[in-house]
Design brief:
There is one protein chain. Helices cover 75% and strands 0% of the residues. By secondary structure, the chain is mostly helical. Helix 1 (2-13) runs antiparallel to helix 2, helix 4 packs antiparallel against helix 6 and helix 6 packs antiparallel against helix 7 (144-165). It starts with a helix and ends in a 13-residue tail after the last helix.
């Protein structure tokens, strides 16, 4: 889970889009391993289907699509609203505090006995932290590829929360599978390439010029 968190921050903050995509790949791979661990712990072997689909879509397909797009456009992201140093300091402080807060008051977030027992306690805290990290990427970053990475961080946080809260229910596997957003990623990449062709940049802030 610690490596999963580090990979999430790397995907969010590294300015080189190829490297950021590599970190997203590693983050998704670790998510697959976490789902497998919950499958073993809960004896819900249908979760293996979820882990397998997570691997295929998030470790293979989506990174490949992102790399293909980056090779056709730019590999350095559009300058975000906050500098790297300031952003790193903000995240270092905020995410650690947020993680500890959720872990301390996990009973308020998920009022069940199971949620207060490890590893569910730490897993839920990590899930909410990654979800907030994804939201931060959407707010601060302007590059369309980074926006896609932020959306996938949010989704991976949701996946981790879902498998932590109800790992024993077979329906959890179905919910995890149907929540994969490969089609959405393809559509977003298509729009991103259209933005690049129209403006010569993947800067989403330039979309405001379409109003004029």
């Amino acid at each position: 889970m610690a490596c999963h968190f580090i990979a999430s921050v790397g995907a969010a903050e590294i300015r080189n889009l190829k490297t950021a995509t590599l970190f997203l790949l590693v983050q998704s791979l670790l998510l697959s391993f976490i789902i497998v661990a919950f499958a073993e712990k809960s004896q819900n072997y249908t979760l293996y289907w979820w882990a397998a689909l997570t691997f295929i879509t998030k470790v293979v397909i989506i990174p490949a699509l992102l790399w293909w797009h980056i090779k056709r456009t730019e590999y350095i992201e559009v300058k975000p609203l906050v500098s790297f140093v300031v952003s790193f300091i903000i995240l270092s402080v905020f995410l650690i505090v947020f993680y500890q807060m959720i872990r301390t008051y996990v009973g308020f977030v998920a009022p069940t006995v199971e949620a207060t027992i490890e590893p569910a306690r730490s897993s839920l805290a990590l899930a909410f932290t990654i979800f907030v990290l994804g939201l931060y990427v959407l707010v601060v970053h302007r590059d369309a590829v980074k926006i896609i990475i932020g959306l996938h961080l949010i989704e991976n946080g949701v996946h981790l929360a879902l498998v932590t809260l109800v790992p024993k229910l077979p329906v959890t596997t179905i919910l995890g599978i149907v929540s994969n957003v490969v089609v959405a990623a393809v559509m977003l990449l298509f729009l991103t390439e259209s933005i690049y062709k129209a403006f010569g940049s993947a800067d989403t802030m330039k979309l405001s010029s379409l109003k004029r």
